[in-house]
Structures are given as C-alpha cells and as structure tokens.
Design goal:
two-stranded antiparallel ribbon; Helicase, Ruva Protein, domain 3; about 55% helix; DUF2200 domain-containing protein; mainly alpha; about 120 residues
Length: about 120
C-alpha cells in the first residue's frame, strides 16, 4: 500500500473536526474523547498530550497504549470501504476511529458505540 497523506497529517488537525462533527449533532467533546480513548487506550491526559504535541497519525497510533481488543467488532463502511476489509493496519485504525465518530454523530447509544452490549451478551454464556 502506498504511503497515504493522512498518515503524516497531524492528529491535532483532524481532532477538532471530529469534535465539530459530533457537536453539530448535539454530542460532546467528552464523548468524542471517550470514544477515542476506548479505541486507543489513551487516558484523557494522554490524548490531550497527543493533541498538544502535534503528532501525526502514524505516531499517534504507534504510541497508543493499547488498542482495544474489541476493535474487530467495529464493522461497516467508511468512505465507501468496509473497515473490516482494510488490510493496512494504520489505515484500518484510522478508519475504525472515523467509524466510531460517525456512529457518535448519528446518535447511536454510547454502549453500542463502545460495543458494550455485545460484550455483556458474550459474557453471559
């Protein structure tokens, strides 16, 4: 796969767009942060440090403390491509984040965005 421009784009440049997208649909920055922290394992402080540092997406994901083990539960289409079919790991992680923000902006319940209901059902076996 070629080296996409988004890999070198500062996360801090895209983060406000995620927040704006959510806020236009009456969601909050705190919810955006919760989704991003769930996906990447960053604490709130760690997320804000990444934004302040101006790290690109490559560095942002490389330094992520712990990608959520349930990312495989994220399915669907972003930019006309099924996220579960994306082979390049960095692009797939970026699209996972896009998909979660899309779900937030569409008004989906937080427990569904964070795949908690699915986990609760799986744990009841």
């Amino acid at each position: 796969m070629t080296d996409h421009k988004i890999f070198h784009m500062p996360f801090a440049k895209v983060y406000p767009m995620y927040v704006q997208k959510a806020e236009r649909k009456n969601r909050t920055q705190a919810e955006v942060d919760e989704v991003i922290c769930w996906l990447t394992g960053y604490s709130q402080e760690g997320l804000q440090e990444q934004v302040a540092a101006g790290n690109d997406f490559t560095t942002f994901f490389a330094q992520a403390p712990n990608m959520n083990p349930n990312v495989a539960l994220i399915k669907g289409v972003v930019c006309g491509v099924r996220v579960e079919d994306i082979e390049h790991p960095l692009m797939r992680n970026i699209r996972y984040m896009d998909k979660l923000i899309d779900e937030l902006a569409k008004g989906k319940a937080m427990e569904k965005i964070l795949r908690q209901r699915v986990l609760a059902l799986a744990g009841s076996d």
